[in-house]
Amino acid sequence: MTTANRSTDLSPTSGQPSRWRVLSWQVAGLLIILGLWWLVTDVLKVYPPYVFPGPKAVWTEVSYGLWGTGPQDGKLLGAIGGSLRRVLTGYLLAVLLGGVVGLLMGAWLPLRATLGAYLTGIQSVPSIAFVPFAILFFGLNEQAVLFVVILEGFIPVALAVSGALLNVPPALRVAGRTLGARGLGLTLRVLLPASVPNVLTGLRTAWSFAWRALVGGELLIAGVKSLGEQLEIGRNTANVALVLATIIIIGVIGGLFDTLLRAAEARVRRTYGLEVQS
Amino acid sequence: MTRTTKLTVSTLLGLLISLPASSAQTAAQSASTVRLGYFPNLTHAPALVGLERGTFQKALGKVKLDARQFVSGTTLTEAFAAGQIDIAYVGPGPAINAAGRGMPVQFLAGASEAGAVLVARKDSGIKSYRDLGGKSVAVPSLGNTQDISLRHILNENDLKSRTDGGTVTITPIAPADVLAAFAARRVDATLVPEPWGAALEAQGHKVIGTEKTVWRDGKYPTTVLIVNTKFAQANPALVTAFLKAHADTVAFINRSPAAAQTAVNAQLLKLTGEKLDPRVLQRAFARTRFTTALDPAALREYAALNVEAGYARSAPDLTPFLRK
Fold it and tell me: For this UniProt entry, which residues form the secretion signal (chain B) (predicted)?
C-alpha cells in the first residue's frame, strides 16, 4: 500500500531522509512555486490580471475574506464554517449509514452480491452527475447538497467495512468461535475490531469523496454560506483572485483533514502490528 | 535525472513556452469579423431587432457579423475577458465589475432602461417588499444587475440575504427557467428582466415591484452597449458604424413598437424555440424604455450599489471607461 509506505519513508530511523529535511524541501518547493507564479503574473505580466492574478492579489482576497473587518469582509471565514458544518454532518451520517450497510453486506451474501456490485458502479459516477437529480428531488437547498455528500461518502465506507469483515484471517474467526462467540457477538467483538485498519482506509477515502462532492454541489446551489458560493460569486463578479483564493482554501482544508486521518490510520496500523518500524 | 524529474521539467518548460502564445490575443489590426454578444431578453431588444432586420450587418458592410447568444452576464464577461467577444449588450452590473477588474471595457451607449420587475408566486403570500423576509427569491445570476438591485431593495426594507446573516435566500436561476421553478414551488419570488416578468404575470403571478419602484423611479440602465477597448482602438470606423446601426434600431423601436415587437418575437422564436403571446410582449414593452442615452450618474450609483451588495470593495472610477 502506498499510503503505508509513505509513513515509513518519513520515519527518521529507517535510513530515509529525516522529517525536517522533507519539511524544508516542502517549504522550498512552495517558495519556488510562489516565485514562479509571481514572475509570470506580476513581473513578466504574461496574463492580464483579470485572467490570472498574481499571488499578492490572491493573498489580499484571502486576508480580507478571513480576517478583514470591513462590513463586507470575513465572507470566506463564514463560507468555511458553512461548508465544514455541512461536510461534517454529511460525513458523519455517511459513516453511520456506510457502517450499517457494510456490516449487513459482510454478513449476508445475497446483499453483498447485489448491492455490493451496484455500489461499485455508483461509485464510478462523478458526484456532480447526481446534483441535478438531487435538486429536482429535494429542491435548491442544503438537503440536495447533503444528499450528494452522503451518497458519495457512504459507498467507500460500506465497501471497506464489508471487505474488511471478509478479509479477517480465518484463524481469528475460529478462535472467536472456540471461545464461544456466535452470530452478532462474533461480528461485533471479533471481526469488527480485527477490521479496524481496513475500515480506517475506507473512512479516509470517504472523506475525500465527501469533500469533493460537497464543493461540487455547493457550486450549483447558492443561497447558503459556502465555499462553492464564493467560487460562484468570484466567477460572476470577474474576481479571479477570489476564485483562486477559494480553490487554495478548499485544497488546504481537504489536505489538512486527509493528513489527520492519515496519521490516525498509520497509528492504528502500528498498533495492529501492520507497520513494522526498523 | 529520474523519470519524474524529467517529466516535471519538461512539463514546466512546455507551460512557459506556451504562455505567451495563449495570452490575450484579442482584436487584431483591422477586424474581418465583429463578434457580438447579447441575451434573449426584451431588455436586449435593440440587439434582437437589429439582428432580425439585418441593420447591423448592413452597417458593417463587408465585415461579417458573428452574433452569439449568452444566458447571463457571467458567461458573457468571461467570453469578453478571453477576447472572444468584441461588442456586447450587457447589464450594467457585469460591465461595471469588468471595468473594476481592469478589463478592456468601454461603455458605448445605453440600450434600455427599467424593464425589470419583482414578481411573487401567486400562492406565496408576498404582497410587498417587506414580505420577502424568510422567502427565497430568484435572480438571473449572482452579482448580475437584478441581483444588485434586489440586494438594494432588501437593504431599504431592513432585510438581508441569508449569506449576509439575514433571512432571504437569493438563488440564481436563468429567467427562462423561473416559470418552471415557480410551478415546482422551488422559489417564492423573482426579480427578472422583461419579458419574463410579463410572462409570469400572464400565468397569474403577482407583480409586487414595478420597473419604477425597483430603483431610481425607473431611471436606471438595464442594458448597456460595451466594446472591447483594444477592438475600438483598432477599428474606430466599425465601432462608429455599429453605434449608428444601434441608434437607428433604438429609433425604430420607439417609432414602430408593434413592428419591433414582431421582430423581437421572431428572434426569440429562433433563439429559444418559443414565441410569446403578443399581449405579454406588449405589456413587457410598456415597462421598458429604449434609449441610447447613458447617464454617468446612474452608472456611478450602480457602482456604489455593487459595493453595498458586497461584490466589490470600492467603486471604480468609470470616467476612463466611458466613450468620449
Answer: 1-23
Kindly indicate whether the ipTM for this predicted assembly is greater than 0.85, answering yes or no: no
Taking contacts as CB-CB distances below 8 angstroms, the residues of chain B near A221 are 171
Listed residue (A207, A194, A189, A197) closest to A98, CA to CA? A207
How far apart are alpha carbons B144 and B71 in whole angstroms? 11
CA distance B17 to chain A (A): 11
Q: What is the pLDDT of residues A71-88, one digit of tens each?
A: 778 889 999 999 999 999
In B108-167, the residues whose Cβ lies within 8 Å of chain A are 136, 141-144, 161-163
Interface of A with B in 214-253 (CB under 8 A): 221-225, 229, 232-233, 235-240
* Cell matching residue A273: 502490528
Q: How far apart are CA B284 and CA B277, in angstroms?
A: 11
The answer to whether B97 contacts A40, with C-beta atoms less than 8 Å apart, is: no
Look up the pTM and report it.
0.84
Q: Give the whole-angstrom CA distance, residue A53 versus residue A41.
A: 6
Question: For B194-253, how does the pLDDT look when each residue is reduced to its tens digit (9 = 90+)?
Answer: 999 999 999 999 999 998 888 888 899 999 999 999 999 999 999 999 999 999 999 999
What are the chain A neighbours of B140 within 8 Å (beta carbons)? none
- Measure Cα distances from A273 to A9, A14, A103, A189, A267 in Å: 17, 17, 24, 19, 10
